[in-house]
Amino acid sequence: MSYGWNDVQRIAEELAETHPGLDPYSVGFVRLQQMIQQLPDFDNTSGRVGEKVLEAVQTLWADEID
């Protein structure tokens, strides 16, 4: 089942699984957006995303690691 930019919790979970050991705060927003777009089942038809969404993903991703 596909998911998009509004599914920040799912994105964070997928990133934690796909990139174990990577510090979410070491990833810049441009790279983070690319990483998200490469996740399996991610639907990028909504196009661009704002920094607030990327910040939320970073925070939730960090929470997933802890």
What's the helix and strand layout?
Layout lengths: L7 H11 L10 H9 L13 H15 L1
Helix pairs in contact: 1-3
Can you walk through the features of this model?
It is a single chain. By secondary structure, the chain is mainly alpha-helical. The chain has a single domain, classed as Orthogonal Bundle (Arc Repressor Mutant, subunit A). It contains three helices and no strands. Helix 1 crosses helix 3. It starts with 7 loop residues before the first helix and ends with a helix.
From the N-terminal CA to the C-terminal CA, the straight-line distance is 27 Å
User: Largest beta sheet, briefly?
Assistant: none
Integer count of domains? 1
Number of helix segments? Answer: 3
CATH architecture: Orthogonal Bundle
Task: Give the fraction of residues assigned to helices.
Answer: 40-55%
Assign the CATH topology: Arc Repressor Mutant, subunit A
CATH superfamily: IscX-like
Instruction: Label the structural class.
Output: mainly alpha
Mean pLDDT: 94
Give the overall silhouette. globular
- CATH top level is Mainly Alpha
| Gyration radius, in Å | 11 Å
